[in-house]
């Protein structure tokens, strides 16, 4: 620590001053550039985080729809197992693009067929409500039932998502 005088003779002034640090002229303005560079880097990081968040939301929606399709297919598999004879008689046969209204139970006297049509009517309504542009198909081959569910999925995957479930009677 140096003692700086106040204009009087040395030792006459009892005040001590701390040395002041002077910023050299060559460093003037660098703090503004550093702030701008930091802002650019933070902005790039924020854009990256927003992109990751958006992709995460897309994946979450895709997983949710797939879970819905699995639950819907399992529900129909259980319905067919409970009404096994109707499944073997192809009362549960369903082609793509058939709507719930085509399975009216009016005028149906066979109880197994009536239950199958009621199941299909309710189930197709559930498919239409739960999945965007949801569609389903049910086929039987001997003792095996195949349930296929299609829906409008992610655009980057061609738009159509599909789930297939097979059941042995």
Question: What does this protein look like?
Answer:
This protein has three helices and three strands; from the N terminus they run H-H-H-E-E-E. The chain has 169 residues and is of the alpha+beta class. The protein has one domain (30-168). A three-stranded antiparallel sheet has the order 1-2-3, covered by helices on one side. The longest helix has 53 residues, at 30-82. The model has no long low-confidence stretch (mean pLDDT 84). This is Type IV pilus assembly protein PilV. It holds the Pfam family Tt1218-like. Residues 52-105 form the Type IV pilin Tt1218-like domain.
Number of DSSP-assigned strands = 3
- The structural domain count equals 1
The neighbouring-strand order within the major sheet is 1-2-3
| Tally of contiguous helical segments | 3
- The assigned structural class equals alpha+beta
Helical fraction: 40-55%
Describe the oligomeric state of these chains in a short phrase: single chain
Shape: rod-shaped
Strand coverage percent = 5-15%
Give the ordered list of helices and strands. HHHEEE
Uncertain runs with pLDDT below 50, 5 residues or more? none
- Alpha-carbon Rg, integer: 37 Å
Sheet bearing the most strands, described?
3 strands, antiparallel
Q: Report, as a whole number of angstroms, the end-to-end distance.
A: 96 Å
Mean pLDDT: 84
Organism: Amphritea atlantica
Pfam families: N_methyl, Tt1218-like
InterPro entries: N_methyl_site, Pilus_4_PilV, Tt1218-like_dom
Transmembrane segments: 32-52
Overview features:
169 residues, alpha+beta, three-stranded antiparallel β-sheet, 15% strand, Type IV pilus assembly protein PilV, Tt1218-like_dom, transmembrane, N_methyl_site, membrane
